[in-house]
Amino acid sequence: MKDLLLAIDIGGTQFRLALISDREMVARVRRATEREGGASWMIRQIIDEGRRLLTEASAPVKACGIGFGGPVDFHNQRIVRSHHVSGWEDVALPDVLREAFGIPCIVDNDANAAALGEFHYGAGQGATHMVYYTVSTGIGGGIVLDGRLYRGKRGRAGEVGHTPIFADSDVICSCGNKGCLEAYCSGLSIARRAREALKEANRLSAAENVTTARDVFSAAGSDPLMKRIVDDTAKYLGASIGGLHNLLDLDVVVIGGGVSQAGEWFIEAVERSARSFMLDPDEHGPQIVASSLGDDSVLWGAARLTQELRRE
Length: 312
Ligand SMILES: [Zn+2]
Known about the structure:
By secondary structure, the protein is of the alpha/beta class. It has 10 helices and 12 strands.
């Protein structure tokens, strides 16, 4: 009987728990977030569901890893805040869950967890130096160098979405700065750029029908203006990836999040752009690939995170 790990993925709209054994997910639970309940409601639900999984587990559960959708003070093991749900400010979640579950717990932000998941179990397997991009509502990321997650001085490294791609831009990003990658290439930003382009072309009713990046990608096959928005998205993402490769000399770049599911043709367009910005593109790399774990990358990475407990 193999020991089990409890993995928890806490997002803005849902949270998920899973029991993971070696390379297998043996049980899982998914619940929608009730935002009005705030953090205290979520923590109660997580404890209830976690206890139920621990009781039903077929083998001892050794530790718990958590990927949290918001900034985390990794060194002090505290949630900084959530951008979606109130009450998460300065919460020592691993202490709370250790008390409730009786096992050691560890937390990192969900993009770092997803990077670890892809590196050890997904599209980054076999790499040594990897950067993970998650392109969905916003853009997050995680950096693995020499096989280890690079967290930086305060545990805040990996914010690939908040590197500027236009220094003289007037477009304000969710972080308050102007010209960030996220302000052009997140799902919300792709939809916004499409609406702006349609309005400029006097296609007002078409503009009203664009609410998500998915609308833009599905129209790109038949609408040259939407095709241009998608092409520009690939160009900007590629510029960011090419620049990061010049900085870090990577084996592989993994792209996750909803936008990565647009199709292989989109990943190929990002790759073409990235190579055009690289100082030394060659046939060996870096490979630019879509995430292979999808939504599960955070759970796998959260389980993997528990290995860092043993060094304490
Ligand atoms: Zn930003």
